[in-house]
C-alpha cells in the first residue's frame, strides 16, 4: 500500500523544520526567506504532498465548500446554466460545490440539508428549476441564498428573473414593429408566478402605446407545450379579420413553436403575415425554428453567479433580505416584422368598397 506523503517528508526533502513547512504551505506571514519558501514548495510538489482540507478547515473554521440543493436542475439541461454560473464563481474563489439534487422529495431534501450541515459547508444555496415562492425548509441556514425562487416572507436573500420587465420588453419589440393587435398566449392553470408578471408587462406596454387591451386576445393553453400553443394560436387566428391578432407574445418558446405550426397550417408566413415572440430562449427550440424565434432569455447563468457571489460574501448587498430581479434580455432573431398591410389598414379597404379578399390573406378554417 502506498503511504500518503506527510509534512515531515516535505521537511526532510527541503532540509527545514516541520514548523517551517507548515508556515509556508499555509501562507502565514513570516520572516522566512523567499528562497526557503520556494524550496519548501518545490519539495512538496516533488514528494506529492497535499495539505489536508479537513485539517485546514479545523484551523481556519472554513472548509472552502458550498452546498447547493436543487429540486431537479441537475437533470434538466434547460436550467443547468444556473449551476455553471455558480460553479464558475466558486472555482474562481477556491471553493468546491457539493450538489444535491432532491427530485422535489421533501424527505431527501431534509437529509440533504442535514448532510451539508454535518459537512460544515461555508455557505448554502437553495435552487429551483423555475421561478416560484417556496417555504424555507426546516433546518436550513439563515444565510442561505435562494436561487430562482422567492422564500415566503422574504426571510432570505434571493435572486429571480425580472419577468415583468421581460414581458414588457417582448411586447415593446412588437409595438416598435408597428403592431397594435397583439395577443398573449398564456400558461395553463395552475399559473406560475411568471405568468402574471409577464402579463403585467404586456399590459404596461399596451398602455404606453395607447392600445386598449382586448380580453379575447389573451388565451390560456390547455397544456404548456407545442400542442397547447398550436391549439391556442388556432383559436386566435380563427377570429374575424378585424379582431385577429397580427402578432403573438407566447408565455414560452414551446408554446411559440406550436404557434408556428398553427400559422403554417393556415398558409401564413412568419413574419410576413404574423409576428411571434417567445420567452426562455430555450436550447434546441428558439434558435432552431424557421425562421429563428425572437425571444426573451432567462438569465440562468447570471443568476447562478449572483447567488454564489452573495453566498461567498464577494458581492455586497445593501439589503440582505431583498429579492434581486435579474434582467431578462431580448434575443432578436427573425420572427418579428411589420404587420401585414391588409390587417393594419382595414379602414382603407372598407372605404374603397373592395370586397375581394387580398391575395395574401389566408382563408378562415
Would you mind describing this structure in some detail?
The strands form 4 sheets. Strands 2-1-3-5-7-13 form a 6-stranded parallel β-sheet, with helices on both faces. The protein is built from 13 helices and 14 strands. By secondary structure, the protein is α/β, with parallel strands linked by helices. It has helices spanning 7-14, 18-25, 34-47, 53-60, 81-92, 106-118, 163-176, 193-208, 226-237, 253-265, 300-312, 341-344, 346-351; strands at 65-70, 96-101, 123-127, 133-134, 145-147, 150-151, 158-161, 182-186, 218-220, 247-250, 275-277, 295-296, 323-326, 330-331. The longest helix is centred in the middle third of the chain and has 16 residues, at 193-208. Helix 1 crosses helix 3. It has 3 domains: 7-51, no CATH class; 65-156 and 303-326, Response regulator (Rossmann fold, 3-Layer(aba) Sandwich); 163-298 and 335-351, Rossmann fold (3-Layer(aba) Sandwich).
